[in-house]
Amino acid sequence: xxxxxxxxxxxxxxxxxxxxxxxxxxxxxxxxxxxxxxxxxxxxxxxxxxxxxxxxxxxxxxxxxxxxxxxxxxxxxxxxxxxxxxxxxxxxxxxxxxxxxxxxxxxxxxxxxxxxxxxxxxxxxxxxxxxxxxxxxxxxxxxxxxxxxxxxxxxxxxxxxxxxxxxxxxxxxxxxxxxxxxxxxxxxxxxxxxxxxxxxxxxxxxxxxxxxxxxxxxxxxxxxxxxxxxxxxxxxxxxxxxxxxxxxxxxxxxxxxxxxxxxxxxxxxxxxxxxxxxxxxxxxxxxxxxxxxxxxxx
Length: 298
Hints:
Elements (H helix, E strand, L loop, with lengths): L8 H13 L2 E2 H8 L3 H13 L3 E4 L3 E4 L2 H34 L7 E4 L2 H14 L3 E6 L5 H9 L5 E7 L6 H4 L4 E5 L6 E4 L3 E6 L2 E5 L3 H16 L1 E2 L10 H11 L4 H8 L3 H15 L4 H10 L5
Parallel strand pairs: 5-6, 6-7
Antiparallel strand pairs: 1-3, 2-3, 4-10, 5-8, 7-11, 8-9, 9-10
Helix pairs in contact: 1-3, 2-3, 4-8, 4-12, 5-6, 9-10, 10-11
């Protein structure tokens, strides 16, 4: 998910180092991080393109303040989401037309309901690494998927229409589940080998080819724009958590934020770790982004 913001782990490390240390040269960053000058140069160029760094004289760079940087990423993210929604809508409208141009060995048309249910079960069973699911309307697919993948160690990602959040209990806790306001179609993808696409009273089994590529692109667009299910409730985030997040996003250190709130540094670290687990954030920068996105900041 953090990669969708345009920042990888190396770039994040450089950005946070610059926030802590202030203006640095490429050489000083290399000495502080142990990374090669070439890796740092690539990361610095990328961060500069994202608007998170500013160049200074004597070949130094300085990080844009965290709060400003988060705001910038949010605006960029919102722009990307609009583009992805447009892409998803366009692809959804084109899918039926693409079917007419697919060869027989790429698409099988199913017209009987029992055949569709059997094909869905077989698709779940055939997955070796990952299942990817879009759920626009309710059915038996959620519980069937849970039974088919239980104990198999498969990764599986599910996007539910926001009106179907109640189905998450049928899918199981091991799924990565997200909610989307606009899910264009029901869809199931097994690895990069097979897809099942219901269309009106029929369904298509789709194998690798142009249509399959379009379905993968559709899933990726919807997944990227969807919201992790854990954000559907604020029960695990109290007023003190929100105040702590606001201080950290504003640029205060753990010690300074803890002093303001009457917490020890260890308590601050423990609360931040719990919030990262609640949100699924992989870094503090990502946690700050999600906090702003969910209006947790005071």
